[in-house]
């Protein structure tokens, strides 16, 4: 019943992009597939919500399983992964706000190394590069598509365009997950590139500037003289140069924890999150349909991902 | 573009950002050729538009400074790229940055987004133009693209 309901809503979304009746079953989802629910997740809104990090990982796993099925159907081997953990998806923002994460990972240097290792040792690379030239080209076209099959183009909110092949195992997997690849591609490109439009203004907003000064004062009290978080990231390589891995990690953790503690002890974290939401909300007047479509299609994909990972894992 | 929007309105469909007719997509033949021959999992940067004038390439390494003498991009690659190409295999995206050390404005090339054949048409997250302005890159999880805070 739920699956039928979701499918009907997904179909309706493709037509109307509003589908007010499609939100309730997905916004309060039962728990088995989200044991690691991200406490920082955006709260459910009547018009939809963003996925939590744990949910993103689940959808990504489902996408990989679908790609594997497609690639094997075309006669290739394919290995699922690498996939991130919830911790892997944090730490890349303007300022750290989670002191527990900072205590575990500092600024994420070790996670970064792990990610590079995963990229380096991806068995799909070795396999694809070991194929005869002709098969290697067919592999690339099968996995990611090519211009001969037609390209989709989305214009980015901040200018420029992004293209992607219309037909590939990747587009097929996304079609299966999101319901309509073309609609998803355009909504995703718009929604995930909105920061380009407002972050420059947000950084100059006097409320943000004022909160940043308080954060900087807090950091000074903790023994670190920095005007803003990017300054720390810029200086980190110099601060850890020549140190043993353990000593380097300790320097990183101390700074990162102080950064996060100061962000929550001063108004910086709350102000940054509030302004982030405010500026994004203002863009809804122009991009609201794309955002709503992105959120609804993400939730529909989550439903399918639960079924897929349950059936195929 | 205008035509597509008009059609959308006529159908009673809310416009999804801006829809661009496929015919306006200026796929680069040279970039297509480079993409076809690139090893899966690799990232390339070029001095000129349309994937010409190779500055450097890598299938596995990040490079925190395109202007120094280490890593896959060195010296003359700094602030020089006018087109980039990414042939993904795993689920990761390539994130390029305006400054060394993964700082300043940034932009992603996700899996299956193939290439940006003319960076003068693109801007970093902070509004700065991307052409001749990339100074570092690394692989990131796709969801690390496009967020201001975690």
TrEMBL record, chain A:
Name of this chain's protein: Lipoprotein
Keyword list, A-Z: Signal
Residues covered by region (Disordered): 23-52
Signal peptide range in chain numbering: 1-19
Species this protein is from: Streptomyces phyllanthi
Automatic annotation (TrEMBL), chain B:
Signal peptide from the UniProt entry: 1-27
UniProt entry keywords in alphabetical sequence: Signal
Name of the protein in question: Secreted protein
């Amino acid at each position: 019943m739920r699956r039928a309901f979701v499918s009907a809503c997904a179909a309706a979304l493709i037509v109307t992009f509003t589908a007010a009746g499609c939100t309730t079953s997905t916004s309060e989802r039962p728990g088995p597939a989200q044991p690691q629910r991200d406490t920082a997740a955006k709260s459910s809104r009547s018009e939809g919500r963003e996925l939590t990090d744990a949910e993103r990982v689940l959808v990504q796993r489902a996408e990989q399983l679908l790609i594997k099925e497609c690639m094997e159907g075309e006669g290739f081997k394919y290995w699922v992964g690498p996939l991130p953990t919830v911790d892997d998806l944090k730490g890349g923002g303007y300022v750290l706000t989670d002191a527990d994460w900072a205590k575990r990972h500092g600024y994420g240097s070790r996670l970064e190394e792990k990610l590079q290792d995963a990229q380096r040792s991806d068995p799909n690379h070795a396999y694809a590069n070991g194929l005869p030239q002709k098969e290697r080209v067919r592999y690339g076209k099968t996995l990611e598509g090519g211009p001969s099959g037609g390209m989709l183009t989305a214009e980015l909110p901040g200018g420029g365009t992004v293209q992607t092949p219309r037909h590939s195992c990747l587009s097929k997997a996304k079609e299966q997950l999101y319901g309509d690849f073309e609609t998803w591609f355009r909504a995703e490109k718009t929604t995930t590139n909105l920061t380009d439009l407002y972050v420059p203004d947000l950084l100059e907003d006097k409320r943000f500037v004022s909160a940043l000064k308080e954060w900087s004062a807090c950091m000074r009290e903790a023994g670190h003289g920095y005007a803003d978080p990017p300054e720390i990231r810029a200086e980190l390589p110099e601060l850890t140069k020549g140190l043993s891995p353990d000593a380097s990690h300790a320097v990183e953790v101390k700074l990162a924890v102080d950064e996060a503690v100061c962000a929550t002890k001063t108004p910086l974290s709350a102000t940054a999150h509030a302004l982030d939401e405010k500026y994004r909300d203002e863009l809804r007047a122009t991009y609201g349909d794309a955002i709503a479509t992105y959120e609804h299609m993400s939730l529909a994909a989550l439903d399918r991902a639960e079924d897929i990972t349950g059936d195929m894992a | 573009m205008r035509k597509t929007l008009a059609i959308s309105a006529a159908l009673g469909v809310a416009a999804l950002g801006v829809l661009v007719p496929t015919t306006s997509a200026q796929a680069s033949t040279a970039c297509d050729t480079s993409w076809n021959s690139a090893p899966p999992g690799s990232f390339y940067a070029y001095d000129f538009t349309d994937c010409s004038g190779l500055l450097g390439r890598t299938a596995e390494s990040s490079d925190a400074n395109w202007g120094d003498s280490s890593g896959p991009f060195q010296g003359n690659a700094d602030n020089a790229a006018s087109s980039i190409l990414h042939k993904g295999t795993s689920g990761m995206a390539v994130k390029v940055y305006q400054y060394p050390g993964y700082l300043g404005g940034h932009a992603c090339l996700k899996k299956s987004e193939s290439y940006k054949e003319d960076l003068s048409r693109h801007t970093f997250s902070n509004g700065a133009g991307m052409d001749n302005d990339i100074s570092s890159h690394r692989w990131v999880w796709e969801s690390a693209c496009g967020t201001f805070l975690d």
